[in-house]
Protein backbone atom coordinates (compact mmCIF):
# COMPACT_ATOMS: atom_id res chain seq x y z
CA UNK A 1 0.00 0.00 0.00
CA UNK A 2 2.86 2.42 0.75
CA UNK A 3 3.91 2.29 -2.93
CA UNK A 4 0.54 3.77 -3.96
CA UNK A 5 1.08 6.90 -1.84
CA UNK A 6 3.29 9.60 -3.35
CA UNK A 7 4.78 12.81 -1.92
CA UNK A 8 1.72 14.96 -2.60
CA UNK A 9 -0.49 12.39 -0.84
CA UNK A 10 1.92 12.40 2.10
CA UNK A 11 1.84 16.20 2.28
CA UNK A 12 -1.97 16.16 2.32
CA UNK A 13 -1.97 13.51 5.05
CA UNK A 14 0.47 15.48 7.24
CA UNK A 15 -1.59 18.67 6.89
CA UNK A 16 -4.81 16.87 7.82
CA UNK A 17 -3.17 15.18 10.79
CA UNK A 18 -2.28 18.62 12.14
CA UNK A 19 -5.67 20.13 11.30
CA UNK A 20 -8.40 17.77 10.07
CA UNK A 21 -10.73 20.72 9.43
CA UNK A 22 -8.64 22.17 6.61
CA UNK A 23 -10.76 22.86 3.53
CA UNK A 24 -9.95 21.58 0.06
CA UNK A 25 -9.00 25.13 -0.93
CA UNK A 26 -6.53 25.41 1.97
CA UNK A 27 -5.00 22.03 1.15
CA UNK A 28 -4.72 23.10 -2.50
CA UNK A 29 -2.84 26.29 -1.58
CA UNK A 30 -0.57 24.51 0.90
CA UNK A 31 0.44 21.75 -1.53
CA UNK A 32 0.32 23.65 -4.83
CA UNK A 33 -2.13 21.07 -6.18
CA UNK A 34 -5.43 21.90 -7.96
CA UNK A 35 -8.39 21.68 -5.60
CA UNK A 36 -10.27 19.10 -7.65
CA UNK A 37 -7.15 16.90 -7.67
CA UNK A 38 -6.95 17.19 -3.88
CA UNK A 39 -10.56 15.97 -3.69
CA UNK A 40 -9.86 12.96 -5.88
CA UNK A 41 -6.62 12.09 -4.08
CA UNK A 42 -8.39 12.15 -0.73
CA UNK A 43 -11.25 10.04 -2.07
CA UNK A 44 -8.76 7.43 -3.25
CA UNK A 45 -6.79 7.50 0.00
CA UNK A 46 -9.97 6.84 1.94
CA UNK A 47 -11.20 4.13 -0.44
CA UNK A 48 -7.85 2.34 -0.13
CA UNK A 49 -7.95 2.52 3.66
CA UNK A 50 -4.92 4.82 3.92
CA UNK A 51 -6.84 7.50 5.85
CA UNK A 52 -9.94 7.53 8.03
CA UNK A 53 -11.90 10.40 9.52
CA UNK A 54 -13.30 10.31 13.06
CA UNK A 55 -14.19 12.69 15.86
CA UNK A 56 -11.97 12.22 18.94
CA UNK A 57 -13.47 13.20 22.31
CA UNK A 58 -11.40 13.98 25.41
CA UNK A 59 -12.64 11.53 28.09
CA UNK A 60 -11.46 13.56 31.10
CA UNK A 61 -13.55 16.54 29.95
CA UNK A 62 -16.61 14.28 29.98
CA UNK A 63 -16.12 12.83 33.46
CA UNK A 64 -14.07 9.75 32.54
CA UNK A 65 -11.03 10.42 34.70
CA UNK A 66 -9.37 7.01 35.00
CA UNK A 67 -7.27 5.38 32.30
CA UNK A 68 -5.34 2.17 32.71
CA UNK A 69 -3.45 -0.48 30.79
CA UNK A 70 -4.33 -4.04 31.76
CA UNK A 71 -2.17 -7.01 30.85
CA UNK A 72 -4.03 -10.29 30.40
CA UNK A 73 -2.68 -13.82 30.50
CA UNK A 74 -5.06 -16.09 28.64
CA UNK A 75 -5.55 -19.60 27.32
CA UNK A 76 -4.37 -19.15 23.75
CA UNK A 77 -6.82 -21.69 22.33
CA UNK A 78 -9.56 -19.22 23.38
CA UNK A 79 -7.83 -16.19 21.89
CA UNK A 80 -10.40 -15.45 19.17
CA UNK A 81 -13.30 -15.83 21.58
CA UNK A 82 -11.65 -13.52 24.13
CA UNK A 83 -10.79 -10.97 21.44
CA UNK A 84 -14.44 -10.84 20.37
CA UNK A 85 -15.55 -10.22 23.96
CA UNK A 86 -13.02 -7.41 24.43
CA UNK A 87 -14.09 -5.72 21.19
CA UNK A 88 -17.66 -5.55 22.49
CA UNK A 89 -16.70 -3.84 25.77
CA UNK A 90 -17.21 -0.06 25.74
CA UNK A 91 -14.57 0.45 28.42
CA UNK A 92 -11.89 -1.08 26.18
CA UNK A 93 -10.50 1.50 23.73
CA UNK A 94 -7.54 -0.58 22.49
CA UNK A 95 -6.60 -4.25 22.58
CA UNK A 96 -3.66 -6.10 21.06
CA UNK A 97 -2.15 -9.58 21.08
CA UNK A 98 1.42 -9.40 22.41
CA UNK A 99 4.64 -11.28 22.64
CA UNK A 100 6.27 -11.17 26.06
CA UNK A 101 4.95 -11.52 29.62
CA UNK A 102 1.32 -10.87 28.65
CA UNK A 103 -0.79 -12.39 25.93
CA UNK A 104 -3.11 -9.38 25.50
CA UNK A 105 -2.80 -5.74 26.50
CA UNK A 106 -5.87 -3.52 26.72
CA UNK A 107 -6.34 0.19 27.32
CA UNK A 108 -9.46 1.05 29.30
CA UNK A 109 -11.22 4.30 30.22
CA UNK A 110 -13.69 4.47 33.12
CA UNK A 111 -15.15 7.16 35.36
CA UNK A 112 -13.80 6.07 38.75
CA UNK A 113 -11.84 3.61 40.87
CA UNK A 114 -15.11 1.84 41.65
CA UNK A 115 -15.74 1.32 37.93
CA UNK A 116 -12.23 -0.08 37.51
CA UNK A 117 -12.82 -2.54 40.34
CA UNK A 118 -16.12 -3.60 38.77
CA UNK A 119 -14.45 -4.08 35.39
CA UNK A 120 -11.75 -6.29 36.91
CA UNK A 121 -13.89 -8.33 39.27
CA UNK A 122 -17.13 -8.66 37.31
CA UNK A 123 -16.34 -8.39 33.60
CA UNK A 124 -12.76 -9.45 32.91
CA UNK A 125 -12.72 -12.18 35.55
CA UNK A 126 -15.86 -13.74 34.04
CA UNK A 127 -14.35 -14.15 30.56
CA UNK A 128 -13.64 -17.82 29.90
CA UNK A 129 -9.94 -18.33 29.27
CA UNK A 130 -8.61 -15.24 31.10
CA UNK A 131 -6.22 -16.69 33.66
CA UNK A 132 -4.85 -13.51 35.28
CA UNK A 133 -4.66 -9.74 34.90
CA UNK A 134 -2.27 -7.01 35.96
CA UNK A 135 -3.38 -3.37 36.02
CA UNK A 136 -1.27 -0.26 35.39
CA UNK A 137 -3.15 2.97 36.17
CA UNK A 138 -2.10 5.91 33.99
CA UNK A 139 -2.27 9.16 36.03
CA UNK A 140 -0.61 11.22 33.30
CA UNK A 141 -0.66 10.82 29.51
CA UNK A 142 2.68 12.13 28.29
CA UNK A 143 1.88 11.74 24.59
CA UNK A 144 -1.39 10.37 23.18
CA UNK A 145 -1.48 7.95 20.26
CA UNK A 146 -3.45 10.52 18.25
CA UNK A 147 -0.37 12.77 18.15
CA UNK A 148 1.41 10.61 15.54
CA UNK A 149 2.15 12.53 12.33
CA UNK A 150 3.52 10.97 9.14
CA UNK A 151 7.30 11.70 9.17
CA UNK A 152 8.91 13.70 6.40
CA UNK A 153 11.52 11.65 4.56
CA UNK A 154 13.25 11.81 1.22
CA UNK A 155 11.15 12.11 -1.94
CA UNK A 156 9.06 9.07 -2.80
CA UNK A 157 8.68 8.68 -6.57
CA UNK A 158 5.16 7.74 -7.65
CA UNK A 159 4.71 4.28 -9.24
CA UNK A 160 3.41 4.07 -12.80
CA UNK A 161 -0.23 3.49 -11.88
CA UNK A 162 -0.31 6.53 -9.59
CA UNK A 163 1.36 8.71 -12.24
CA UNK A 164 -1.34 7.68 -14.71
CA UNK A 165 -4.03 8.62 -12.20
CA UNK A 166 -2.46 12.02 -11.66
CA UNK A 167 -2.32 12.70 -15.39
CA UNK A 168 -6.04 12.01 -15.60
CA UNK A 169 -6.60 14.40 -12.71
CA UNK A 170 -4.65 17.17 -14.41
CA UNK A 171 -6.63 16.71 -17.64
CA UNK A 172 -9.90 16.87 -15.73
CA UNK A 173 -8.79 20.04 -13.95
CA UNK A 174 -8.15 21.82 -17.23
CA UNK A 175 -11.47 20.71 -18.72
CA UNK A 176 -13.91 21.06 -15.80
CA UNK A 177 -12.35 23.17 -13.05
CA UNK A 178 -13.58 23.08 -9.45
CA UNK A 179 -17.26 23.00 -8.58
CA UNK A 180 -18.35 25.69 -6.13
CA UNK A 181 -21.21 23.51 -4.93
CA UNK A 182 -18.83 20.97 -3.41
CA UNK A 183 -18.56 20.86 0.43
CA UNK A 184 -15.71 23.04 1.75
CA UNK A 185 -13.91 20.22 3.56
CA UNK A 186 -13.49 16.47 3.26
CA UNK A 187 -15.13 15.96 6.66
CA UNK A 188 -18.22 17.85 5.42
CA UNK A 189 -18.30 15.68 2.31
CA UNK A 190 -18.19 12.49 4.37
CA UNK A 191 -21.03 13.76 6.55
CA UNK A 192 -23.14 14.46 3.45
CA UNK A 193 -22.39 10.98 2.08
CA UNK A 194 -23.36 9.38 5.39
CA UNK A 195 -26.70 11.23 5.37
CA UNK A 196 -27.45 9.91 1.87
CA UNK A 197 -26.44 6.38 2.92
CA UNK A 198 -28.83 6.43 5.88
CA UNK A 199 -31.71 7.06 3.47
CA UNK A 200 -30.74 4.28 1.07
CA UNK A 201 -29.05 1.47 2.98
CA UNK A 202 -31.11 -1.08 4.89
CA UNK A 203 -30.50 -0.92 8.65
CA UNK A 204 -28.31 -3.72 9.86
Structure description:
With about 200 residues, the chain is of the alpha+beta class. It folds into 2 domains: about 1-55 and about 165-200, Winged helix-like DNA-binding domain superfamily/Winged helix DNA-binding domain (Arc Repressor Mutant, subunit A), CATH 1.10.10.10; about 60-135, 2-Layer Sandwich (Alpha-Beta Plaits), CATH 3.30.70. The protein has helices spanning about 5-20, 25-30, 35-45, 80-85, 115-125, 160-175, 185-200; strands at about 65-75, 90-95, 105-110, 130-135. Strands 2-3-1-4 form a 4-stranded antiparallel β-sheet. α2 (about 25-30) crosses α3. It is elongated, with a radius of gyration of 22 Å. Residues about 175-180 and about 195-204 have low confidence and may be disordered.
Number of domains: 2
> Biggest sheet: strands, sense, closure?
4 strands, antiparallel
Full CATH superfamily name of the largest domain: Winged helix-like DNA-binding domain superfamily/Winged helix DNA-binding domain
- Second-tier CATH architecture of the largest domain: Orthogonal Bundle
Structural class: alpha+beta
- Total DSSP helices: 7
The level-1 CATH class of the largest domain: Mainly Alpha
Oligomer: single chain
**Spans of 5+ residues with little confidence (pLDDT < 50)?**
174-181, 197-204
Order of helices and strands: HHHEHEEHEHH
Helical residue percent band = 40-55%
Q: Give the overall shape.
A: elongated
Sheet-strand content, in percent, reads 5-15%
- Placed side by side, the strands forming the largest sheet appear as 2-3-1-4
Instruction: Give the averaged pLDDT, no decimals.
Output: 83
CATH fold annotation of the largest domain: Arc Repressor Mutant, subunit A
In whole angstroms, the N-to-C terminal distance is 30 Å
Radius of gyration: 22 Å
Number of strands: 4
Amino acid sequence: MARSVNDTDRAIIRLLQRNARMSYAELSRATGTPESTVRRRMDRLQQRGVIEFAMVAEPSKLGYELRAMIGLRVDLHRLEEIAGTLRAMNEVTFAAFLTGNFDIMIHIIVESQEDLVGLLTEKLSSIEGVRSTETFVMPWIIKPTTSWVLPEHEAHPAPADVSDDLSEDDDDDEMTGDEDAQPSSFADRIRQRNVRNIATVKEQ
